[in-house]
Design goal:
The complex is a heterotetramer, with two copies of chain A (218 residues) and two copies of chain C (231 residues). Chain A is an alpha/beta fold. In chain A, 16% of the residues lie in helices and 28% in strands. A ten-stranded mixed beta sheet of chain A has the order 4-3-2-1-5-8-10-11-12-13. In chain A, strands 7-6-9 form a three-stranded mixed beta sheet, with no helix packed on it. The radius of gyration of chain A is 17 Å and the shape is globular. The termini of chain A are close together. Chain C has helices spanning 8-12, 33-42, 61-66, 82-90, 100-112, 175-181; strands at residues 20-23, 47-50, 70-75, 94-97, 116-119, 133-136, 139-145, 151-160, 165-166, 184-193, 212-215. In chain C, strands 1, 2, 3, 4, 8, 9, 10 and 11 form an eight-stranded mixed beta sheet that branches. Chain C has a three-stranded antiparallel beta sheet with strand order 5-7-6. The chains are: A alpha/beta (218), C alpha/beta (231). At the A-C interface, helix 3 and helix 4 of A face helix 4, helix 5 and helix 6 of C.
Chain lengths: 218, 218, 231, 231
Amino acid sequence: MALTKEQIAQRIAKELKNGYYVNLGIGIPTLVANYIPKGIDVVLQSENGLLGMGPFPTEEEVDADFINAGKQTITTLPGSVIFDSAYSFGMIRSQRIDLTVLGAMEVSQNGDIANWKIPGKLIKGMGGAMDLVASAKNIIVTMMQTNPKGESKLLPECTLPLTGKKCIQRVLTDLGFYEIKDGAFHLTEIAPGVTVDEVKAKTAGKLVVSATLKTIEV
Amino acid sequence: MALTKEQIAQRIAKELKNGYYVNLGIGIPTLVANYIPKGIDVVLQSENGLLGMGPFPTEEEVDADFINAGKQTITTLPGSVIFDSAYSFGMIRSQRIDLTVLGAMEVSQNGDIANWKIPGKLIKGMGGAMDLVASAKNIIVTMMQTNPKGESKLLPECTLPLTGKKCIQRVLTDLGFYEIKDGAFHLTEIAPGVTVDEVKAKTAGKLVVSATLKTIEV
Amino acid sequence: MNKVVANADEAVKDIPDNAVLMLGGFGLCGIPENSIAALIRKGVKGLTCISNNAGVDDFGIGLMLQTRQVKKMISSYVGENAEFERQLLSGELEVELIPQGTLATRCMMAGYGIPAFFTPAGVGTEIAEGKETRVFDGKEYLMEYAFKSDFAIVKAWKGDTAGNLIYRGTARNFNPMMAMAGKITIAEVEELVPEGALDPNEIHTAGIFVNRIFKGEKYEKRIEQRTVRRS
Amino acid sequence: MNKVVANADEAVKDIPDNAVLMLGGFGLCGIPENSIAALIRKGVKGLTCISNNAGVDDFGIGLMLQTRQVKKMISSYVGENAEFERQLLSGELEVELIPQGTLATRCMMAGYGIPAFFTPAGVGTEIAEGKETRVFDGKEYLMEYAFKSDFAIVKAWKGDTAGNLIYRGTARNFNPMMAMAGKITIAEVEELVPEGALDPNEIHTAGIFVNRIFKGEKYEKRIEQRTVRRS
């Protein structure tokens, strides 16, 4: 069975280590916040200018001056810090973020990523994605293995305009967890009940199945 | 009579306009703060990180955490702001300082200035002087017309290592006020009782006496 | 040092057609609501707006799009705006998209008097086209320039009559850098206090960067995504 | 997020010989007194110190000069120090002088992940020798690089256990930029408080940049030029 979005988020949450500063993109990455393991102290960064993002507010707590990078109303926590957007991207560029999780439309076997623009469709903009992918030292890209047409999103080369070049080392899809190295997707973990053949069929880029392939625990 | 240091400071104080942000260097420039005309509201910047420098503290007010760029204990005023040194030089480089007054060892007829280093003598460093002269849009250099040996400090070319190149437009000495343009010192004002011949004798660089030469009021 | 002007109309009265403006805010958070309303009343045209976002159809910069006052948007993200889409597709509106960190830093550098700098954002993408690249320590960077703007319009929480500003929460965002970056900087504040009422140690923007300040009226502070949890 | 270490000795214990250190402070104002004392107790040698000044003979970095622990100073102004002069003239000590604004900005850029930038300071002087220059809008600039340092040691007024810092008065100076710039950043504070005790809106340095924090003992806060007026 392919992983659900919640299961993808749960698997990523296992990558969290005590003391991590983490930036979670919009979509599946945001769900990771719901699965932070007990006893693991992580701080969430929101690139509009907040470190220590708390949960959504209660109706009474809603405050228009406190939003996250997805423009959702949020709260702060003890130890939170507010700063301006230049300072925020300063900490991103100087690699103080321990883990960055973001979605993508396509990833290539060289580690290129495309997630901001579809030619012919209306362009909304890259927001902070280009800064994040070019700067972060530890990125997990998470997405479905295929697009709604059933085409693989793990490609020899991206077909869409790039967000960043040779910057992605790890991808988690609903079918498997991949390490990108030496110009190939190395399947290191596979979703329970999914066959290697299915993964092969749905990976357009070069695939290497790890000798130590594990099944993702859900 | 050549101007005293206090008279030099008084003359410079007449250049202050309401609403000016001013950076005063160490030495004679500092004295300018004593002669700010009544009704003229100026804000003093200290490049270590303070806008709105107040007077020296009373014995009771002395606080080691409040010093100026000369490392003297100072006070703040209503409306003062504290900031870090990068922000401070940010406002200097982006030309928010309306008037900068600083001392010099030598000035050349091209507007070069030397005020930080004497070969063979111990070097103390330039501090913020190179940033200030390279950035400020309105600088008055103030110094004695001659050095202790009686040699002119207004030169065809500086002999000492430069602090900045082609950045000085105005010099006030104990003998006169000069505008530097077209490769010459243009004497626009002269100290009371000083003769043009004396100025000529003590100006090694090219001197032009203004057709509208005025006597400095003291 | 008194930089107080009577109101928003007074603050924006000399902004000419075709001016380049910076407008603070992220989404609808921390935007200069009163100044935008005054720009619409004034009817100034052909504006280039440097702002992270373009508002929504009926709030923020979106309002100036409705009135066709904007010639060009320089932003990092411009979704959530139907009129914007229409003008963009019809060619009425120009858009330049810039990575968010680069946008913030180009504002900051203008305030810091640094004409150009290097950032890795956008290397190898279409953003890099025509830009000088350079390798430092084995990593490739793009050279980016400080923005030039005629007016910066920011929104703060508290300000004093000398123009010193304090922002609140994530409404800070782009406002402090833009405040430093305008040839003329206009600040609107929720609370206008006398000099001395703000702690010098807590001020986010030094008044030296602010040319005009006024107390804004009736802040709506529209929320774009009202997300709540059960209490 | 707990970054508290027991004391200064614990904080500096892994600083090796020949390390490159940043030390906050301007003159004797806002210097990490406790960490300097610990470095002397530890006896680490061959240090390169990036610090605006070099202290005085018997205080600040001057104390580390007395014990011959410093190989090189990178500063903007180094007067007021007889032992410094002696070591400099005898060739025991290297000195690199850098304009103060450039020094501050090279620290800041390290924290901002910007490897190089342009500044007009020093154009046409010996500071420009060997440096790339470039003209923007008719004005000449030097290209300067972000500093690299192994440890940054800063002094703040208040800090929380997560490393968030607030400075006081002009003791802020170089500390916030250096705090952002170290591979490892050590902060000593006068008051150490729990997370949540500092207002998120008033914090000057975000804890993400700080690796270790401790409460310093008995701050002397020596005054270099005690200037007073009659009350």
